[in-house]
């Protein structure tokens, strides 16, 4: 029941923060991109790298995984590996990353309950671990624009299936700004604006303009 006396200036506990989330990047590999037909591949790569830089800027625990890297799918996206040069990449045989013991152990080791998930393809290597994690009590936030399926229908139907099971759809820029949440947070301000300028399209150009016209510390 609503009690106006309890209303205060405080964030929702549902919000993503650098302290409650973990990012999972699943199967961003050449072979997967070859068949990704749900959207512009360059845009998906841009969103994926923007999301990866977001994780690094906020020191969010990150798990990288590939499937059959040497036998079929090729190495992890080079731009993604460049953001995390020291990270182990967990290679699997299973299409469902949540059936791989090393992958699940890496997620558990973070102690985080909110999973920010992206990957290729949406209808296989994304939906399978999403449903599996949800069933075991995790909260799953699916980054739709850093993921892709073999067709627009495959991507959309997979998103609908995950949403019906309780997953939450987000975009990479939404994650970036939700983690920052306050432009007065100077420790991450510069990194956030740089990521926006590099990967956020017209909004990024807006940041460039504001900093040029208003000043280096123009916010938002």
Would you kindly provide a written description of the structure presented here, covering whatever features stand out?
The chain is 49% helix and 14% strand. A six-stranded parallel beta sheet has the order 3-2-1-4-5-6, sandwiched between helices. Helix 2 runs parallel beside helix 8, helix 8 runs antiparallel to helix 9 and helix 9 crosses helix 10. The chain is globular, with a radius of gyration of 18 Å. The chain starts with 20 loop residues before the first strand and ends in a 7-residue tail after the last helix.
Can you describe this structure in just a few lines?
With 220 residues, the protein is an alpha/beta fold. It has helices spanning 30-34, 41-57, 69-73, 78-83, 101-110, 122-135, 152-165, 172-180, 186-199, 201-213, and strands spanning 21-26, 62-67, 89-92, 114-119, 139-143, 168-170. 41% of the residues are buried.
